[in-house]
Design goal:
single chain, alpha/beta, 14-stranded mixed beta sheet, two-stranded antiparallel sheet, globular
Length: 207
Amino acid sequence: MKRLIILLVLFFANFAFAAIYNIGPGDDFGVLGLVDYDTFLMTGGTGHDLTLGGWSTGIIEDTDPLNIAETEGGIWELDTYSYSELTINGGEFYELGAHGESIINLSGGRIDHIYSYQTAWEWDYGVDPPEWVPNPHITVVYSGDMPTVDVSNVLTGLWGNGSAFSIELHDVSGYSPVIENIQFELIPEPATLLLFGLGGLLLRKRR
């Protein structure tokens, strides 16, 4: 019992000392590294180098525009490590790197380059014999046609909000190709969502 209490105290202590970062328009965080259970929310502004490690979480809704010529705006280097989780709904980024067992959810914004230092497969020991099954760490939410990759390893498609994206994928030796590490999630068309809603109403009326 004492051991359980100690473990619970240590568990909640991690949250108690976790840092909370809120970045908004006009802010420049420069170089920032998240650890343990830190949290990060960005609704505007800029920064050069952002790293998520430990069990940290980050949500980015928007950034300043990325200016390549002036090396300013947006976020230039963004890396995820360990068991961190990053969600990008908007903003502009030059380079995104996925490491460890981190999870990345992408549904908007401008992303110029993605590097993957992850293995996109794992053994499923729930079946006999065990099977080698997909285990992607990056989710791309899209609309319209399925995104495609050309001969230059450039991924193109439409985000869930209908805006276009074009991302250069960089395969890293010793790790799975980036495209294998991406799972695609389709956003239903508005008309389809409306039909689902009407169907639900009809079922309720029948009951």
